[in-house]
Amino acid sequence: MPSSPTPEEREKADTELKAKEKTEQDALPYKWTQTIQDVDITVPVPGNIKGRDLEVVLTKNRLKVAIKGQTPIIDGDLPKAIHVDESTWTLEPVSDGKEVAIHLDKVNKMEWWAHVVTTAPAIDTSKIQPENSKLSDLDGETRTMVEKMMYDQRQKEMGKPTSDEEKKLDMLKKFQQQHPEMDFSKAKMG
Q1: pTM over 0.85
Q2: Backbone phi, then psi, for 116, in 5-degree steps?
């Protein structure tokens, strides 16, 4: 049976993987970053390019960026769906020319993307260190879920019932009140 790698071997493997990922990502004709909610891409283009010279197509599951009449710079399927109406692109001046700045709004705001298009090299999303976020940054449904999880964690730490367990106890109490003739002395919660 093979032994598990030592911490030094694991660190060496992680360093090699990071170096390989960096080389692959640096070779792409664009740069990209992401948060849990969106993806931002910058594509350098020559300084003489105008917006009308570009073909930028954003669909729910596909992205294409090209200078008209040339081979596309990016053309492929997105790994996950985006909100097209909330996604944008602009042509920005930069010190060495111009760049196409693309903002993609993720449909699923609870997962990381391994790449911008499925044909590009993937990154190891398990190594992403998310930035700290405030509860107020989250959408209503996600915020409610996180607050419930935090409440349940505090309850467990104090040895008290979680919100789901409290609901069950409340339902049992109501049922007991509605049916005083029944014996609940041997009832088990679980």
Answers
A1: no
A2: -80, -50
